[in-house]
């Protein structure tokens, strides 16, 4: 049974944990229920008792429902969360699932976008409840798919390779990039997905050097952004 007024967190790989998102919720005393569909844990049929929804990243793509049937259940709950205007946050794969549920195309990127790379905040970010007044110069990217900005959504960020890196739709935010990762989490991703690094021309050592350069700035940005998201949870 779901803990009353808990935030429901969908996870898709052991290395992609909620990190700084979960830390922001803990600081406000908001309970979480982490659901591991990839490990066979059933997805609830309803959002009864949920105060918010977080959808994390993972190695699968949004159309692999036959291989990963839990994706169907997650999409159904995303639809319910959008209809109920429940605070919703999608990260990487989670943002792709959110975009697809909103009717946007999710396709292969020109090439994988992996590593610590710049993003540019767009004008709508200036008045966004999460990103307003926040500088987001460099973040961690780890994706091979991209999406169009959903119709009716406010585009919040872009990168040199990807036109839509973040968007807001009602009470939902989709972030294709990663702001939730600690250095330990980045190392776990590098260990879990060495082929991704090779495809991007990176090694674990070069990624670790990038992480050492940018991790402290990311932690400060993440504390602000995710604290603001947690404050929206009732």
Task: Explain the overall architecture.
The protein has a single domain (6-231), classed as Rossmann fold (3-Layer(aba) Sandwich). It has six helices and ten strands. The chain has helices spanning 19-27, 70-83, 93-101, 183-192, 194-199, 204-231; strands at 6-11, 32-36, 50-55, 88-91, 106-118, 120-121, 138-147, 154-158, 166-169, 172-175. The strands form two sheets. Strands 2-1-3-4-10-9-8-6 form an eight-stranded mixed beta sheet, with helices on both faces. It has a two-stranded antiparallel ribbon with strand order 5-7. Strand 8 (154-158) and strand 9 form a beta hairpin. The model has no long low-confidence stretch (mean pLDDT 95).
Total DSSP E strands: 10
Q: At the third CATH level, what is the topology name?
A: Rossmann fold
Q: Given the C-alpha coordinates, what overall shape results?
A: globular
Mean pLDDT: 95
- N→C terminal distance: 19 Å
Q: What is the count of structural domains? A: 1
The CATH homologous superfamily: Class I glutamine amidotransferase (GATase) domain
